Amino acid sequence: MTDIFDIEGRSILVAGAGGIGAGIAGELARRGAKLTIADVDEAAIDRVRDELPGDGHSACTLNITDEDSCASTVAQAVANGGRLDGVLNAVGILRIASALELPIKDFTASMNINVTGALLIARQAGKVMIDQGGGRIVTLASVSSTVANPNYAAYASSKAALTQLTRVLAVEWAKHQVAVNAIGPAVVPTPMSNPFMTDPEYRAYQMSHIPMGRMATVEDLFGTALLLLSPAGAFITGQTIYVDGGRTLV
Ligand SMILES: NC(=O)c1ccc[n+]([C@@H]2O[C@H](COP(=O)([O-])OP(=O)(O)OC[C@H]3O[C@@H](n4cnc5c(N)ncnc54)[C@H](O)[C@@H]3O)[C@@H](O)[C@H]2O)c1
Q1: Residue 36: in which H helix or E strand, if any?
Q2: What does the pLDDT profile of the chain (250 residues) look like in tens digits?
Q3: Which strand ranges, in their side-by-side order, compose the sheet holding 58-61?
Q4: Pocket perturbation via mutation, ligand 1, pick of 62, 69, 91 by most ligand atoms within 8 A of CB
Q5: Residue with CA nearest ligand 1 atom 43
Q6: Closest atom of ligand 1 relative to the 112 alpha carbon
Q7: C-alpha span between 206 and 210 (Å, rounded)
Q8: CATH classification code of 11-243
Protein backbone atom coordinates (compact mmCIF):
# COMPACT_ATOMS: atom_id res chain seq x y z
CA MET A 1 0.00 0.00 0.00
CA THR A 2 1.31 3.47 -0.89
CA ASP A 3 2.09 5.65 2.13
CA ILE A 4 0.53 9.01 1.30
CA PHE A 5 2.66 10.65 4.01
CA ASP A 6 5.93 9.29 2.58
CA ILE A 7 8.65 11.95 2.38
CA GLU A 8 11.63 9.65 2.05
CA GLY A 9 14.28 11.21 -0.20
CA ARG A 10 12.47 14.55 -0.47
CA SER A 11 14.78 17.57 -0.47
CA ILE A 12 13.53 20.05 2.12
CA LEU A 13 14.95 23.40 3.26
CA VAL A 14 14.24 24.11 6.92
CA ALA A 15 14.74 27.82 7.56
CA GLY A 16 14.90 28.54 11.28
CA ALA A 17 16.87 26.24 13.59
CA GLY A 18 15.11 27.33 16.79
CA GLY A 19 12.74 25.26 18.90
CA ILE A 20 10.08 24.57 16.27
CA GLY A 21 12.39 24.38 13.22
CA ALA A 22 14.81 21.99 14.93
CA GLY A 23 11.99 19.81 16.25
CA ILE A 24 10.21 19.44 12.92
CA ALA A 25 13.55 18.96 11.13
CA GLY A 26 14.26 15.98 13.39
CA GLU A 27 10.94 14.37 12.48
CA LEU A 28 11.41 15.00 8.73
CA ALA A 29 14.90 13.50 8.89
CA ARG A 30 13.62 10.45 10.82
CA ARG A 31 11.25 9.89 7.89
CA GLY A 32 14.12 9.98 5.40
CA ALA A 33 13.98 13.55 4.04
CA LYS A 34 17.24 15.17 2.98
CA LEU A 35 17.48 18.51 4.74
CA THR A 36 19.28 21.83 4.50
CA ILE A 37 19.12 23.69 7.82
CA ALA A 38 19.44 27.49 7.61
CA ASP A 39 19.46 30.21 10.28
CA VAL A 40 21.21 33.46 11.13
CA ASP A 41 22.59 31.66 14.22
CA GLU A 42 25.64 29.74 12.94
CA ALA A 43 26.09 27.68 16.09
CA ALA A 44 22.47 26.53 15.90
CA ILE A 45 22.63 25.31 12.30
CA ASP A 46 25.69 23.15 12.94
CA ARG A 47 24.25 21.76 16.17
CA VAL A 48 20.87 20.95 14.61
CA ARG A 49 22.40 19.41 11.47
CA ASP A 50 24.81 17.28 13.49
CA GLU A 51 21.95 15.89 15.61
CA LEU A 52 19.76 14.91 12.65
CA PRO A 53 19.28 11.21 11.97
CA GLY A 54 20.39 9.99 8.55
CA ASP A 55 23.03 11.26 6.13
CA GLY A 56 23.39 13.96 3.53
CA HIS A 57 22.01 16.95 5.45
CA SER A 58 23.62 20.36 5.02
CA ALA A 59 23.71 23.61 7.00
CA CYS A 60 23.71 27.15 5.69
CA THR A 61 23.88 30.64 7.20
CA LEU A 62 20.78 32.66 6.31
CA ASN A 63 19.66 36.21 6.92
CA ILE A 64 16.06 35.93 5.78
CA THR A 65 15.71 39.72 5.32
CA ASP A 66 18.43 39.69 2.63
CA GLU A 67 17.31 38.41 -0.77
CA ASP A 68 20.84 37.41 -1.85
CA SER A 69 21.18 35.34 1.31
CA CYS A 70 17.80 33.68 0.58
CA ALA A 71 18.93 32.95 -2.99
CA SER A 72 22.18 31.35 -1.92
CA THR A 73 20.41 29.31 0.76
CA VAL A 74 17.92 27.97 -1.79
CA ALA A 75 20.82 27.24 -4.17
CA GLN A 76 22.58 25.26 -1.44
CA ALA A 77 19.42 23.26 -0.71
CA VAL A 78 19.08 22.44 -4.42
CA ALA A 79 22.76 21.47 -4.62
CA ASN A 80 22.41 19.28 -1.53
CA GLY A 81 19.17 17.54 -2.50
CA GLY A 82 19.37 17.64 -6.31
CA ARG A 83 16.05 19.57 -6.38
CA LEU A 84 13.83 21.39 -3.86
CA ASP A 85 10.64 19.59 -2.89
CA GLY A 86 9.74 21.65 0.15
CA VAL A 87 10.50 24.61 2.38
CA LEU A 88 9.57 24.81 6.04
CA ASN A 89 10.09 28.41 7.18
CA ALA A 90 10.27 28.52 10.98
CA VAL A 91 12.16 31.82 11.22
CA GLY A 92 10.52 34.50 13.34
CA ILE A 93 10.79 36.97 16.18
CA LEU A 94 8.36 37.90 18.97
CA ARG A 95 8.35 41.41 20.42
CA ILE A 96 5.76 42.11 23.12
CA ALA A 97 4.87 45.61 24.37
CA SER A 98 1.79 47.77 24.66
CA ALA A 99 1.04 49.76 21.53
CA LEU A 100 1.78 52.99 23.43
CA GLU A 101 5.25 51.80 24.44
CA LEU A 102 6.29 49.54 21.56
CA PRO A 103 9.58 50.75 20.07
CA ILE A 104 8.92 51.30 16.38
CA LYS A 105 12.15 49.48 15.58
CA ASP A 106 10.55 46.35 17.11
CA PHE A 107 7.48 46.75 14.91
CA THR A 108 9.68 47.23 11.84
CA ALA A 109 11.91 44.27 12.70
CA SER A 110 8.85 42.05 13.18
CA MET A 111 7.51 43.01 9.78
CA ASN A 112 10.95 42.63 8.15
CA ILE A 113 11.70 39.18 9.53
CA ASN A 114 8.22 37.66 9.83
CA VAL A 115 6.69 39.04 6.61
CA THR A 116 9.30 40.45 4.21
CA GLY A 117 11.61 37.55 5.04
CA ALA A 118 8.81 35.05 4.42
CA LEU A 119 8.23 36.59 0.99
CA LEU A 120 11.95 36.62 0.11
CA ILE A 121 12.62 32.98 0.97
CA ALA A 122 9.31 31.86 -0.57
CA ARG A 123 9.90 33.60 -3.87
CA GLN A 124 13.45 32.31 -4.20
CA ALA A 125 12.15 28.79 -3.54
CA GLY A 126 9.08 29.44 -5.70
CA LYS A 127 11.23 30.21 -8.76
CA VAL A 128 12.99 26.85 -8.44
CA MET A 129 9.74 24.99 -7.80
CA ILE A 130 7.98 26.59 -10.77
CA ASP A 131 10.89 25.56 -13.02
CA GLN A 132 10.88 21.99 -11.72
CA GLY A 133 7.08 21.64 -11.96
CA GLY A 134 5.90 21.85 -8.35
CA GLY A 135 6.75 22.02 -4.68
CA ARG A 136 5.56 22.89 -1.19
CA ILE A 137 6.13 25.98 0.92
CA VAL A 138 5.08 25.94 4.57
CA THR A 139 5.54 28.92 6.89
CA LEU A 140 4.98 29.18 10.62
CA ALA A 141 2.15 31.64 11.19
CA SER A 142 0.47 31.72 14.64
CA VAL A 143 -2.88 31.92 16.37
CA SER A 144 -1.92 35.61 16.35
CA SER A 145 -2.76 35.61 12.63
CA THR A 146 -6.36 35.90 13.84
CA VAL A 147 -6.68 36.41 17.64
CA ALA A 148 -5.92 39.81 19.21
CA ASN A 149 -3.81 39.43 22.35
CA PRO A 150 -3.02 42.68 24.16
CA ASN A 151 0.59 43.85 23.66
CA TYR A 152 0.90 41.94 20.38
CA ALA A 153 0.67 44.85 17.90
CA ALA A 154 3.98 43.95 16.23
CA TYR A 155 3.68 40.16 16.27
CA ALA A 156 -0.02 39.87 15.47
CA SER A 157 0.18 42.40 12.64
CA SER A 158 3.07 40.46 11.13
CA LYS A 159 1.35 37.08 11.47
CA ALA A 160 -1.92 38.35 10.00
CA ALA A 161 0.04 39.73 7.05
CA LEU A 162 1.82 36.40 6.71
CA THR A 163 -1.47 34.52 6.51
CA GLN A 164 -2.68 36.80 3.74
CA LEU A 165 0.71 36.58 1.97
CA THR A 166 0.28 32.79 2.05
CA ARG A 167 -3.08 33.10 0.27
CA VAL A 168 -1.73 35.41 -2.44
CA LEU A 169 1.36 33.28 -3.16
CA ALA A 170 -0.88 30.21 -3.27
CA VAL A 171 -3.19 31.71 -5.87
CA GLU A 172 -0.28 33.01 -7.98
CA TRP A 173 1.59 29.69 -8.03
CA ALA A 174 -1.26 27.17 -8.01
CA LYS A 175 -1.06 26.64 -11.78
CA HIS A 176 2.56 25.57 -11.29
CA GLN A 177 1.57 22.98 -8.67
CA VAL A 178 3.41 24.94 -5.99
CA ALA A 179 1.32 24.73 -2.81
CA VAL A 180 1.80 27.45 -0.19
CA ASN A 181 0.42 27.01 3.32
CA ALA A 182 1.01 28.01 6.93
CA ILE A 183 0.76 26.35 10.33
CA GLY A 184 -0.73 28.44 13.13
CA PRO A 185 0.27 27.10 16.56
CA ALA A 186 -0.86 28.25 19.97
CA VAL A 187 2.00 28.97 22.36
CA VAL A 188 4.74 26.30 22.23
CA PRO A 189 7.57 26.22 24.79
CA THR A 190 10.71 27.25 22.84
CA PRO A 191 13.49 29.82 23.26
CA MET A 192 11.04 32.35 21.75
CA SER A 193 8.23 31.88 24.26
CA ASN A 194 10.06 30.62 27.36
CA PRO A 195 11.19 34.06 28.60
CA PHE A 196 7.55 35.27 28.62
CA MET A 197 6.05 32.08 30.05
CA THR A 198 8.10 32.56 33.25
CA ASP A 199 5.92 35.64 33.97
CA PRO A 200 2.99 34.19 35.98
CA GLU A 201 0.52 36.79 34.69
CA TYR A 202 1.42 36.15 31.04
CA ARG A 203 1.32 32.40 31.55
CA ALA A 204 -2.07 32.53 33.28
CA TYR A 205 -3.51 34.66 30.48
CA GLN A 206 -2.24 32.31 27.79
CA MET A 207 -3.39 29.14 29.57
CA SER A 208 -6.85 30.54 30.32
CA HIS A 209 -7.38 31.10 26.60
CA ILE A 210 -6.58 27.56 25.41
CA PRO A 211 -9.72 25.39 25.70
CA MET A 212 -7.71 22.15 25.79
CA GLY A 213 -5.94 23.54 28.86
CA ARG A 214 -2.32 23.12 27.84
CA MET A 215 0.34 24.63 25.63
CA ALA A 216 1.17 23.08 22.26
CA THR A 217 4.26 20.91 21.99
CA VAL A 218 6.59 20.81 19.01
CA GLU A 219 5.41 17.22 18.51
CA ASP A 220 1.82 18.51 18.08
CA LEU A 221 3.02 20.24 14.89
CA PHE A 222 4.58 17.17 13.25
CA GLY A 223 1.37 15.85 11.71
CA THR A 224 0.44 19.12 10.02
CA ALA A 225 3.98 19.70 8.76
CA LEU A 226 4.04 16.18 7.34
CA LEU A 227 0.60 16.58 5.75
CA LEU A 228 1.63 19.80 4.02
CA LEU A 229 5.01 18.46 2.80
CA SER A 230 3.90 14.98 1.67
CA PRO A 231 1.71 13.58 -1.14
CA ALA A 232 -1.24 13.62 1.29
CA GLY A 233 -1.33 17.43 1.09
CA ALA A 234 -1.06 17.79 -2.69
CA PHE A 235 -4.39 19.61 -3.12
CA ILE A 236 -4.20 21.88 -0.05
CA THR A 237 -3.08 25.43 -0.77
CA GLY A 238 -3.47 28.91 0.68
CA GLN A 239 -4.48 27.62 4.10
CA THR A 240 -3.35 28.49 7.59
CA ILE A 241 -4.01 25.36 9.64
CA TYR A 242 -4.36 26.17 13.33
CA VAL A 243 -2.85 23.64 15.72
CA ASP A 244 -4.01 25.33 18.86
CA GLY A 245 -6.13 23.26 21.26
CA GLY A 246 -9.04 25.53 20.38
CA ARG A 247 -7.27 28.88 21.01
CA THR A 248 -8.77 30.49 17.90
CA LEU A 249 -12.32 29.43 18.92
CA VAL A 250 -12.60 31.69 21.97
N1 LIG B 1 6.98 29.29 20.14
C2 LIG B 1 5.72 29.66 20.02
O3 LIG B 1 4.98 29.78 21.00
C4 LIG B 1 5.16 29.93 18.66
C5 LIG B 1 3.77 29.95 18.51
C6 LIG B 1 3.22 30.24 17.26
C7 LIG B 1 4.06 30.49 16.19
N8 LIG B 1 5.42 30.46 16.35
C9 LIG B 1 6.25 30.76 15.19
O10 LIG B 1 7.04 29.64 14.87
C11 LIG B 1 8.28 30.08 14.29
C12 LIG B 1 9.43 29.46 15.04
O13 LIG B 1 9.38 29.91 16.40
P14 LIG B 1 10.25 29.23 17.56
O15 LIG B 1 9.37 29.15 18.74
O16 LIG B 1 10.97 28.04 17.04
O17 LIG B 1 11.28 30.42 17.84
P18 LIG B 1 12.85 30.38 18.10
O19 LIG B 1 13.20 31.72 18.61
O20 LIG B 1 13.22 29.17 18.90
O21 LIG B 1 13.42 30.19 16.59
C22 LIG B 1 13.36 31.23 15.67
C23 LIG B 1 14.64 31.19 14.85
O24 LIG B 1 14.62 32.24 13.88
C25 LIG B 1 15.96 32.67 13.71
N26 LIG B 1 16.03 33.99 13.10
C27 LIG B 1 15.65 35.18 13.63
N28 LIG B 1 15.91 36.17 12.77
C29 LIG B 1 16.44 35.60 11.66
C30 LIG B 1 16.87 36.10 10.41
N31 LIG B 1 16.87 37.43 10.14
N32 LIG B 1 17.31 35.23 9.48
C33 LIG B 1 17.36 33.91 9.73
N34 LIG B 1 16.98 33.36 10.91
C35 LIG B 1 16.52 34.22 11.86
C36 LIG B 1 16.55 32.64 15.13
O37 LIG B 1 17.97 32.63 15.11
C38 LIG B 1 15.92 31.39 15.69
O39 LIG B 1 16.77 30.25 15.54
C40 LIG B 1 8.24 31.61 14.33
O41 LIG B 1 7.78 32.12 13.10
C42 LIG B 1 7.22 31.89 15.42
O43 LIG B 1 6.62 33.15 15.27
C44 LIG B 1 5.98 30.18 17.56
Answers
A1: strand 34-39
A2: 899 999 999 999 999 999 999 999 999 999 999 999 999 999 999 999 999 999 999 999 999 999 999 999 999 999 999 999 999 999 999 999 999 999 999 999 999 999 999 999 999 999 999 999 999 999 999 999 999 999 999 999 999 999 999 999 999 999 999 999 999 999 999 999 999 999 999 999 999 999 999 999 999 999 999 999 999 999 999 999 999 999 999 9
A3: 58-61, 34-39, 11-15, 86-89, 135-140, 178-185, 240-243
A4: 91
A5: 92
A6: 31
A7: 7
A8: 3.40.50.720
Q: Enter the pTM of the model.
A: 0.99
Pocket test residue of 88, 138, 140 for ligand 1, highest count of atoms within 8 A of CB: 140
Per-domain residue ranges of the chain = 11-243
- State the catalytic residues: 155
Handedness of CA 223, 228, 230, 234 (dihedral sign): positive
Pocket of ligand 1 (CB under 6 A): 16-21, 39-41, 44, 62-65, 90-94, 113, 117, 140, 142, 185, 187-188, 190-193
Ligand 1 centroid vs 32 CA: distance in angstroms?
Answer: 24
